[in-house]
Write a structure and sequence with these properties.
- The protein is an alpha/beta fold.
- The protein has a 7-stranded mixed beta sheet, sandwiched between helices.
- Helix 2 packs parallel to helix 3.
Length: 207
């Protein structure tokens, strides 16, 4: 029997470490930047007063740098990534003292609560335990804080959920159920890029 690729700890970390230095280059880099720009615009529209922000799966920090420009009143912006190479590349690219980075997984965010906004762009599909990661996102948000989760979400991906990615939420229905089960309310879908890249926004209840 072949090993389950989803059971291996941190299964994608090595691959992202190898790609860290040239992650922002070429067509793939341009695509990720365009997706991140859409997520930034969505964040500015949904949480214009956000002052404390977390990016889970920050990669080289492009989205946080874009958010720093779009949300100039932000005072604390934290990027989390499981790949040390990505965090190293992010640190090398940033000059804004409001932005900091840490090596950690979505399932164990090294943060206390009180954040206004948690974003994640094209990282969710790589979380080992998506339910645990969403619970951590809810934990670090203040009551009323907002979540924006962008990744590959499409009914077209339903067959992959019974094959190699059977533990992953890749359809809007499955993703929305996980987000709601993690304690979020006011769920709303947003088209981001092409057909399968979409974002779900939600809010941690105020009460």
């Amino acid at each position: 029997m072949s090993p389950d690729p989803d059971s291996a700890p941190h299964r994608d970390v090595a691959a992202f470490d190898e790609r860290a230095l040239d992650y922002d280059a070429g067509w793939r880099g341009r695509m990720h930047h365009e997706i991140s720009d859409h997520v930034r615009d969505l964040a500015v529209a949904i949480a214009p007063d956000a002052r404390r922000i977390v990016d889970v799966g920050c990669g080289t920090g492009y989205l946080l740098r874009a958010l720093a420009q779009g949300l100039p009143d932000a005072v604390d912006m934290v990027g989390i990534d499981a790949a040390p190479g990505m965090v190293g590349a992010a640190v090398a690219k940033v000059a804004d003292p409001r932005i900091r980075f840490a090596v950690a997984t979505a399932e164990r965010l090294p943060l206390a609560g009180g954040f206004d906004l948690v974003v994640s762009s094209t990282s969710f599909d790589h979380w080992r335990d998506q339910r645990a990661g969403l619970s951590e996102c809810a934990r670090v948000l203040r009551p009323g804080g907002r979540l924006i989760l962008c990744d590959i979400f499409s009914p077209l991906l339903a067959p992959t959920q019974v094959a190699t990615r059977r533990r992953k939420a890749r359809t809007p229905l499955r993703a929305a159920n996980l987000v709601a089960e993690s304690g979020f309310v006011d769920l709303e879908w947003h088209s981001v890029y092409a057909v399968i890249i979409n974002a779900i926004s939600a809010r941690r209840p105020s009460g």
